[in-house]
Amino acid sequence: MAQDTARTPPPSPGPELEQLLIDAEADDAKVQQQTVLLQRPWLLLLGLVLVALNLRPALSSMAPLLSQVSESLGLNGSQAGLLTTLPVLCLGLFAPLAPILARRFGAERVILGILLMLAAGIALRSSAGSVGVFAGSLVAGASIGIIGVLLPGIVKRDFPKQAGALTGVYTMALCLGAALAAGASVPLSQHFGQSWEVGLGFWLVPALIAALFWLPQARHGHGAHRVAYRVRGLWRDPLAWQVTLYMGLQSSLAYIVFGWLPSILIGRGLTPTQAGLVLSGSVIVQLISSLSAPWLATRGKDQRLAIVVVMLLTLGGLFGCLYAPLDGLWGWAVVLGLGQGGAFALALTLIVLRSKDSHVAANLSSMAQGVGYTLASMGPFAVGLVHDLTDGWAAVGWIFAVLGVAAIGFGLKAGRALQVQVTSEKV
């Protein structure tokens, strides 16, 4: 008798198997999304440039308008000094949050969210009177501090062979943003009826544009930072502290320039518009050295000579702007820009070069910028205090000298061709 050869259908997959298939499909889709991004590195580079453009306008737009803001809100010299110090202090205080947020949500998503927070802080600063100007400055400084910590890790992770050059590119973009805000804030204010609120508030627009262009990274970024790594020994490593102190000391001079150079020049006889243009021109010159200094410094055996050169240029430019005759002011502004652009770019480059991988770079970036910017905030505050005590600007030169010499000393240590001795392990 012939047997019935009809086949019974295979059993339907159980819920466990179905979930495995769903997870596999999701992983495949995620890999495809990541592959698309990796095949278009220009998209990530464009996003990095646009994000970097927004890391200084909230700071450099205040200085040319500081006298107008102070007069409008009735701020004294110490309060105006606090207004220039508060955002820089927040850069340092909030920087340690960056690795924590990145592990929880992914660096790309964190940057998107913080860009929106930056825009909100700028809006608050320009629309809520004296309380809003301080609260908005706090929010803007905190936002910039978090984003600034995450960028070096992304560069180290996604462009490991071009880390020095790419650091120069986004530092150049950062300087361009600072220059645009320094030069355009007063004309914007004047165009809209001497409204300092418009001069400060306009800079939320590029933050929103950057968020729009960063959206693909936030949606499809591979989120390498979401894997938790513990880096041990960083806070006990002498080289890490040398990088941190160089970062903080040169940044202190930079934020003195952002916060007080226009006021110093107005005190020497320039109009607010002229003073803002000098600051803007000096920062534009930083584009040259911020791009070239890291590239040149990575061609030698170490970065010590480059650090000495850029710091001497910085000190020369500062003393020239403070003491030299005004007919040579633009020359000193150029010297200052060449020095400070190179000094900051080298500080960021040292974070990358002194780290063995992206996880160490993210943690060293957090330490260097967290402690460094907290230290840097003391510079603008000290300038305001000395100005109030002496009723002039001449004594400020001593602050320049102390900070500059100390930066050279720690820079010579940080510029050696070494790496921080730490352990990095997955948790």
Secondary-structure element order, as H and E?
HHHHHHHHHHHEHHHHHHHE
Regions with pLDDT < 50 over 5+ consecutive residues?
A: 1-8, 15-39
Average pLDDT reading: 82
Helical/strand content category: mainly alpha
Going by CATH, the homologous superfamily would be MFS general substrate transporter like domains
CATH architectural group: Up-down Bundle
Distance between the termini: 66 Å
Describe the structure.
The chain has a two-stranded antiparallel ribbon with strand order 1-2. The protein has one domain (41-420): MFS general substrate transporter like domains (Growth Hormone, Chain: A, Up-down Bundle), CATH 1.20.1250. Helices cover 78% and strands 2% of the residues. 55% of the residues are buried. It contains 18 helices and 2 strands. Residues 1-8 and 15-39 have low confidence and may be disordered. The chain has 427 residues and is mainly alpha-helical. It is globular, with a radius of gyration of 24 Å. InterPro entries: CynX-like, MFS, MFS_Cyanate_Porter, MFS_trans_sf.
Ordered list of secondary-structure elements with their pairings:
Blueprint: H1 15-39, H2 41-53, H3 57-60, H4 62-73, H5 77-94, H6 97-105, H7 107-125, H8 129-158, H9 163-191, H10 196-201, H11 204-220, E1 229-232, H12 238-267, H13 272-297, H14 304-323, H15 329-353, H16 358-376, H17 378-390, H18 396-414, E2 423-426
Antiparallel strand pairs: 1-2
Helix pairs in contact: 2-9, 2-11, 4-5, 4-9, 4-12, 5-8, 5-12, 5-16, 5-17, 6-7, 6-8, 7-8, 7-11, 8-15, 8-16, 9-13, 9-15, 12-13, 12-14, 12-15, 12-16, 12-17, 12-18, 13-15, 14-15, 14-18, 15-16
